[in-house]
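[Meeting: bench + compute handoff]

Bench side (C.D.) handed over the final construct sequence. Compute side (W.E.) agreed to return the predicted structure before the next meeting so the bench team could plan truncations. Sequence as handed over:
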Amino acid sequence: MSHSDVVAKTVAACEAAEPRLHAFTRIMGDTAMEEARHLDALAAAGVDLGPLHGVPVVVKDIIDVAGVPTLAGSATRAGATRAKSDAFVVKKLRAAGAVVVAKVNTVEYAFGGWGTNANTGHPRNPWKPDESHTTGGSSSGTGAAVGGGIVPAGLGTDTGGSVRIPAAMCGCVGLKTSIGLVSRAGVVPLSDTFDSIGPLTDTVRRAAEMLDVMQGEDRDDPSTVGIARKDPFAELDRGGAGLRVGRLSDTMLEDASPEVRADFEKSVALLEAAGVTVVPIELPHPMLEYQRRATVIIATDAYAFHADMAESNEAPLNDTTRTRILQGKSFTARDRVLAQRRQVTDINDFLAAIDHLDAVVLPTAPITAMPHTKVNEDDYSVSLYTRMGNYLALCGLSVPIGLTAEGVPTALQILTRRFDDPLALRIGEAFESVRGPFPTPPSL
């Protein structure tokens, strides 16, 4: 099958699924087909751009794609002009042969973990589209499109779990990359302290392929300057033998639902079957404390970026988003400085606690997808197990475990030290190889 055939089939699948999923904000059929025909011509001439040559991808709608407005899931950008150029990461993917077939939905300004958006219509979980279950957020559209099997890969962003949570709820792989590996230039910011870009993919290996080409120094994002590239493939296939990971104790996971805890125990057994040594561990602080401590930094960053809009009564901003942004106004400069100093101490204490370990494993989320009608927007429990990864400057990988009795996914989260992204992928690949193929959701 030619690249044009694959892309045409994917575009048709996006259009067919959209009435049920509400995942797509713009399906880019014409430009995608143009790119695919160019890639066919390169292939006919003997040019192979690598494993992403001709692979359809979607892009979260806070990331610039040339010629398309970046709407950030908000009515405040209804009149936004078309982006003049691709975000750095989109350029990298296109140079490797990936084809952008669509922009996809997001929580407004990426500020929320449930995946809801009253402006655009809530994206629906591909495992329960007709019951209108949550996708997780804020990379909701990417999770729905990849988890639904419509595309093999897409881009999301993660400030407190926004790649890992939708990956977990929609049944796909999600990689929160270490800050500094992937440039955030061309992305609408929320918190430049915690924002990272990551792929959501059908397999761990595909996530490695995406990370391999997404990396690169970019002077428009100072966090990337001087950072050495990481090879995701060097040890990807070495399996779990010789690795030691810490599993959080039952007391630290008491907020997880019974099904989440049960599937986490299954995942631990699968890791051990893959040769990983798993030992119990207690963190220096409860996860709720890490989540709370991160709030000061996220809120003040968000207010710094979006204060003018949030303060304006004329801006058509969703009330929930406005309240979250304005929370940053309640903190003083002293609060911010003390929060940053405490973060450094917390990072050092955490690294000391896992000095004898290669990684830490825990569920990605304490709960699974639920009907939108049951969502409480003031409940932050959905990010209880993920926000610590951002706060402690870690890499995080979410890999599906199985399905609950209701038929929605559960997921394992693997946390590694900053820049140990290849190690997280190695552990995820070892887990995935023992788990076996993950089921696909009902036809959309």
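W.E. noted at the follow-up: The chain has twelve helices and eleven strands. C.D. will use this when planning the next construct.
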